[in-house]
Amino acid sequence: MSTKTHYDRTARWLHWAMAAMILAMIFIGVGMVASLEARPWLLALHRPLGLLVLVLAAWRLWHRWRHPAPALPDSVPALQARVARASHVLLYTLMFAMPLLGWAMSSAGGYGVALPGGFVLPALAPQDAALYSWLRCAHGALGYAFFGLILLHLSGALYHAWVRRDGVFESMAHDK
User: Domain containing 20 — which CATH number?
Assistant: First the structure.
């Protein structure tokens, strides 16, 4: 069992940078649906930011594998520890699934995913209107689920910071 009590600097940087990007992605996504006028420039921001989230998620998973998380304090009830582990698995799953679904959806809709510099990513799915519609619904529904999971994660973090005061929040918030 690990005796470290804090995440390292890289893990913390990836966590907070991705938290900001993912929240931005959710609000940009809502804005794209709400405003036809703003949709083109929001979409031009949303796609490359989504791909950056995908790349950072891969880096984060690799880093997590090489630098395991600190153990939860013994005072954390077993059920709460299982819920925390399950929520982290779901968060990582959605960090990969959302950008891949968005890329596949764009491909199915016949829209290339252009990166800054004019590079267009290869299609992830065949162009198909029915598939596009299904992927768009899935991307939207999982976006709401992701937001709900983030709120649950934030609630747990604040519970540890303000109620339990057991060091769990501090392990990601700052150096030892």
Answer: 1.20.950.20
